Structures are given as C-alpha cells and as structure tokens.
Amino acid sequence: MASRPRHPLPNDPVTDEVVYRNRRQFMQRAAAGAFGMAAGVGLWHPLAHGKVRMGETIASKQLSTDEERTPRQKVTHYNNFFEFGTGKSDPAEHAGSLPTEPWSVAIEGEVARPGKVGLEDLVRPHRPFEERIYRLRCVEGWSMVIPWLGFPLADLLARFEPTSQARFVEFTTLYDPAHMPGQRRDVLDWPYVEGLRIDEATNPLTLLAVGLYGEVLPEQNGAPIRLVVPWKYGFKSIKSIVRIRLTRDKPVTTWHKAAPNEYGFYANVNPNVPHPRWSQATERRIGDIFQRDTEMFNGYGEHVAHLYKGMDLKKHF
C-alpha cells in the first residue's frame, strides 16, 4: 500500500492539555470496564469456525434512542458502500462474495504496542457485546435507526497504549478489487480512508460494530467490523476496517480529498451548514413519506457538543 503524504498539524482549536486529559480519562475508564458495560453479565463468543458468533448481549439504554427502528430489510438493502457500486442496491447485490474470515486489523502508529490482531482478539474476553440503537444520518438527506452490536472503540485503543503524540485516529477499509467490484473504477482514491480526532474516537458513543439486529454484520453493512459515529454523517462510519493508525497529523480522508468543498473532515450533522447540492435542514427517515427536521449533532449534542466548544462549525464543517 502506497504511503500517504503527511500534512502539518492543522490549526484546530484543541490543546495538548485537552487531548492529554482525555487520553488519561479514557484509559482509566476502559481499564475499569466503564462505558456502561456490566461486569459478570455473561460471555460473548467471538468465533464459531472462524466467524463472529453472537453470544449474550446487553442493552445500552442510556446511549440508545427509543425511536422506532428501521426495518432490517431496509437497513440491509439501502446502503452507500462504493466498494461494491454507487447504487443503493449494489452492496446487497455484490457484497455476498466478500471473504470475511479470517480477518485481522493492524493497529499502528503512535501506540506503544503496535500489532496485527485477529478478529477474535479485538474485544476483551468475557465481555458481552453491547446493543446500541443509533440514528444514522446520510449527507444525501436520508436517515435510519439501527440496533448495532459492538463495543466502544476506546476500549480497543486503550489496549495498545496510545502515546502522547496520538492526536488523530486513521481508519482504512479493505482493498480487494477481486471481491469489491467498485474498486475497479476510479470513483474514489482507493482504499477508503477516514479519520477522527482522538477525543472523538474515545467518546463513549463511538462504536466498533460487529452486528446488527442481533445477528452478525452483513457484508453490505461493513462486515466483519465497522465504525459507527452517530453524531456525524454516514460517510465517516467506515466499513470493513483492516487498519487503525494513530497519528499526530490529521489524516487525509477519502471524501475530503475527493471534494473538500462538500465533505469536511469533521462532518458533524449540522442543519445550519448546507451541502453545496443539498440542504441539511431536513431529512427523510427511510420508510417514511414526510420530511422531519434535522437535529444538531443528530440529536447527540448532550454527549458531544463539548468536543467542539469554541470552534467555528461553519469553517470546521
């Protein structure tokens, strides 16, 4: 894989003190088994003949919405996953042949313990998966409510001991044109890359998902492991992850690189900042006829608004 250019640290209004304090807090919470995970609830079983198997799960009611869930058929058959084509039905039609076992994720960069980890080792043993019902808002104006199964990204990162230089987290999707026909076209600069600031990555809402609707994650939804960042537009929630790299510099992300005037690095759901081709003030829940008002941060402001205190969210869109 060709190395990507490194850019100077941007003038984002985040101080080293904030990043340091956040890192200390999330490592302490992860070590203590926080983020709403109850000890002794039961075992989850990471593998069944090389594939993730859903064991006992616990519901995270504090972080979940109580809105009506989008039907599973719609969640699994209306997707953006350009690796399989640009049409909404393309992922469901073409992703079934994607080999997802065995699977490993490389943890690299500004960590004390880098390495490549098999899917079965990504989550701590003897911890149930957590079900979280999150809204998902697409930049094109549609939205869903999905019951995910997964675990906090912060829990994983803490195991690899981020260094004091880690300020961003970069994610990379599998590159496999033989099984991902969309990658045979120059629609985007493959492989797909996304990124978060480290305080965003370690926020309790940020989830690594391995399932939905109580079942293993379908290929078209990002199997076997994907990111879910519910207060950001859907393109930030990268699918089929094979690499997580902690960096000092802001990652060069795929959609921002392709169209920087349309897709900002932060991509926070913001009804007050229109996309050049679409208003973001309203949205249509898949399955509904009528539009509804879009909420700031997709309705998760109480959990994440403090991350952007003092920022110009029209400039840092």
Description of the structure:
By secondary structure, the protein is of the alpha+beta class. The chain has one domain: Oxidoreductase, molybdopterin-binding domain (Sulfite Oxidase, Chain A, domain 2). The protein has helices at residues 16-32, 72-77, 90-94, 153-159, 198-201, 254-258, 301-304, and strands spanning 57-59, 104-109, 115-118, 129-137, 142-152, 168-173, 193-197, 207-212, 215-216, 226-228, 241-247, 282-285, 292-293. The strands form two sheets. Strands 1, 4, 5, 8, 9, 10, 12 and 13 form an eight-stranded mixed sheet that branches. Strand 8 and strand 9 form a beta hairpin. The radius of gyration is 18 Å and the shape is globular. Mean pLDDT is 85; it is low at 1-51.
Describe the secondary-structure layout.
Blueprint: H1 16-32, E1 57-59, H2 72-77, H3 90-94, E2 104-109, E3 115-118, E4 129-137, E5 142-152, H4 153-159, E6 168-173, E7 193-197, H5 198-201, E8 207-212, E9 215-216, E10 226-228, E11 241-247, H6 254-258, E12 282-285, E13 292-293, H7 301-304
Parallel strand pairs: 1-4, 2-11, 5-12
Antiparallel strand pairs: 2-3, 4-5, 5-8, 6-7, 6-11, 8-9, 8-10, 12-13
Helix pairs in contact: 1-4
